[in-house]
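Is this the right way to post structure tokens for a design question? Let me know if I should format differently. Anyway, here goes:
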């Protein structure tokens, strides 16, 4: 059995990236199955080996901050919104963006034409 997307490795609600991971999962799994000529016993370990470090890097983007971003009182909600308005003007956000960009690109995708034995 193979799991993909959130069922395999739901990331933090704070990190995002769940859609990207799910799409890359589907692509990599299809390539590995094609490369193994449909032999799932060969394809599934290669799928996991290729995906695991990529998933770990994306899940590690955010490890705390849930209490701040998902407040449980009106006062904290107001405070969060004020701080986010202020943060949007600070360079710290562009640094966070570059970390997400690095993690989002931290996977080497197989060439589906080669995997399917149809290299051009
Ligand atoms: C509020 C919110 C904001 C988000 N923002 C982002 C973002 O900015 N960027 C990002 O990358 N990700 C984001 N995500 C995460 C992203 O939506 C998920 O990671 C992504 O949708 C996972 O895709 P999936 O196909 O694995 O699961 P899902 O999209 O959950 O698809 C699973 C499907 O299976 C169906 N299903 C469930 N049980 C059964 C059953 N027994 N039989 C048949 N069908 C069944 C469900 O109805 C559903 O259609 C966000 C999620 C939430 C909730």
């Amino acid at each position: 059995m193979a799991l993909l997307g959130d069922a395999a490795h739901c990331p933090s609600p704070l990190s995002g990236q769940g859609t990207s991971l799910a799409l890359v999962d589907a692509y990599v799994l299809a390539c590995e199955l094609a490369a193994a000529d449909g032999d799932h016993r060969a394809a599934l370990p290669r799928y996991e080996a290729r995906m695991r470090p990529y998933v770990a890097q994306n899940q590690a983007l955010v490890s705390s901050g849930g209490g701040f971003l998902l407040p449980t009182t009106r006062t904290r909600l107001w405070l969060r919104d004020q701080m986010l308005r202020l943060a949007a003007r600070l360079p710290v956000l562009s640094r966070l963006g570059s970390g997400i960009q690095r993690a989002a690109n931290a996977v080497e995708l197989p060439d589906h034409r080669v995997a399917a034995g149809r290299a051009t």
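Format looks fine. Someone answered above. Worth noting: Residues 5-7, 16-20, 22 surround flavin-adenine dinucleotide (CB under 6 Å). Residues 15-114 form one domain.
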